[in-house]
Amino acid sequence: MYRKILITTDGSAVSQHTACAGVKFAQQMQAEVLALFVAPSYQYPVYVEIVPPAYPSEEEYLAQMRRMGEEYMGSIMRAAEKAGLQHSCMTAFSDTAALKIVDVAEQQGCDLIFMGSHGRSGWGQLLLGSVTNKVLSHTSKPVLVHRLIREPGT
């Protein structure tokens, strides 16, 4: 039914558990897995006239975020490989993670977006916003939302 599934992660324990569930789902479908980590865009310091010496250059920042993304997506890649699935990973940069997820799903020809929900409701959801809700409202692709009943480790 699905040939290519986009699995998102932000490196949190919740998203790692979601990613494992996503790989299991992909295995049932015998679908290819594309893991995605969206890092914030590089921000130039605007509060001073001279860049502080400890402030990372844009190249250093991008390299560090790519390393972090590879670390976050490593468990997804290992699980997909163990399951015998085709797999790849990608680190993207954007200050609007939801829109970037939708764009990547379109550009990469994904049939399904598999992502987690922290399960916030009421004021927490309203005040904090939700990448998952924004993805749902900006894509015409199917989105499978994996919701944990309780936090990992509890």
UniProtKB/TrEMBL annotation:
Which InterPro entries does the record match to this protein?
Rossmann-like_a/b/a_fold, Universal_stress_UspA, UspA
CDD domains, alphabetically? USP-like (cd00293)
Segments passing through the bilayer: none
SUPFAM superfamilies in the record: Adenine nucleotide alpha hydrolases-like
Return the Pfam families for the record.
Usp (PF00582)
Residue span, UspA domain: 1-145
Q: Which family does it belong to?
A: Belongs to the universal stress protein A family.
What is the protein's name according to its record?
Universal stress protein
Protein source organism: Massilia terrae
